[in-house]
Structure formats: structure tokens, C-alpha cells
Amino acid sequence: MDVVTMLDELQNKALRDPEIRAQFLQTQKAKEPLTAFCQVCQKLGYELYEMDLICAGEEFHAAMKRSTNGGGENSPMLAGEDDFYELFMASINARRGT
């Protein structure tokens, strides 16, 4: 299973289960949030590690840059679009009341 699929499944679990959502939200307070996040993922049965998230984000960002305007110097800046942890957390934070 690829990183995006794992994150999608985990996000759905977090949105359905307040206890899981709380575990993920708690990772934001950790000294090493990404490590804490991966530990929660692993406890839930998903083999996800820090470098998996980092590499997947960088690959996604690079693919986006290549797909826009030929990927040259005029490609738009996509700041933050490669941080899958932050995107995941923003999503469950935005929907935490639902």
C-alpha cells in the first residue's frame, strides 16, 4: 500500500473515531511530531515511517512542478504542498467538529 492510500485510510479512521483523532492531534504537541505521528500509525497497523512521508511529499511536489508550465523556472511556488503530515493534521483539525 502506498503512503497516500495509507494516509487516506488513517484520515478516514480519525474522522470516524474521536479516540484515534485525539491520538493524532496529540502528536502536534510532541517534541518530534512526525515521529509521534508515525508511532500512532504503526500502532494502528500501518507501516509508515518519517522518511516515507518526507519522500512521498517531495515526490508529489516534484511531480506537481513538472506538470506545470514544463517544470521550468516559471513554475509556480507550491510552498507547503509537500508536507503530508501538515496536510493530514489540517484536514482532521478542520473537520474535528463533524
Keyword list:
98 residues; mainly alpha; 0% strand
User: What's the total helix number?
Assistant: 5
N- and C-termini, Cα separation: 28 Å
Q: How is the biggest beta sheet arranged?
A: none
- Count of strand segments: 0
Contiguous low-pLDDT stretches (5 residues minimum) are: none
Cα gyration radius (Å): 15 Å
Strand percent estimate: under 5%
Shape: globular
Quaternary assembly = single chain
Helix-strand makeup class: mainly alpha
Percentage of helical residues? 55-70%
User: What's the number of domains?
Assistant: 1
Mean pLDDT: 81
User: What is the N-to-C order of secondary-structure elements (H for helix, E for strand)?
Assistant: HHHHH
Provide a concise account of the structure shown:
64% of the residues lie in helices and 0% in strands.
Describe the structure.
- With 98 residues, this protein is mainly α.
- It has 5 helices and no strands.
- The two termini are 28 Å apart.
How are the SSEs placed, and which strands pair?
Layout: H1 3-16, H2 18-26, H3 33-43, H4 50-67, H5 84-94
Helix pairs in contact: 1-2, 1-5
